[in-house]
Design a protein that fits this description.
104 residues, mainly alpha, 3 helices, 88% helix, elongated, disordered N terminus
Length: 104
């Protein structure tokens, strides 16, 4: 019985620290998700405008340009959505890595 009481006391002692950590994380999550969401919308608008110009004026894109545009759509649209729904918790890190890779 005493061992069980000690375990319960330890859990009660560690829980406030965990709650504080969760509160610190959740304070910044809405800001990050809003920024990523705005970036994704901006990229989607840019991509749509660019592709409409290409279609309207008959410019042909080679395969590499299409691949780059699709990778950009994946980085700027899919990752913020996953971050918003908290499917991937490390999305900001993944977003930065993919963004650096895309810009190189």
């Amino acid at each position: 019985m005493r061992e069980q009481n000690k375990i319960v006391e330890k859990k009660l002692i560690t829980e406030p620290n965990q709650i504080k950590l969760k509160r610190q994380i959740t304070k910044h999550e809405p800001i990050i998700s809003r920024i990523l969401y705005l970036v994704s919308i901006g990229w989607f608008i840019f991509e749509t405008f660019f592709l409409s110009l290409v279609k309207a004026y008959g410019y042909l894109l080679n395969v590499g340009a299409w691949i780059i545009l699709l990778i950009g759509a994946g980085i700027f649209i899919i990752i913020p959505i996953l971050h918003y729904f908290k499917i991937i918790l490390l999305c900001p890190i993944l977003f930065r890595v993919l963004l650096i890779y895309y810009l190189l």
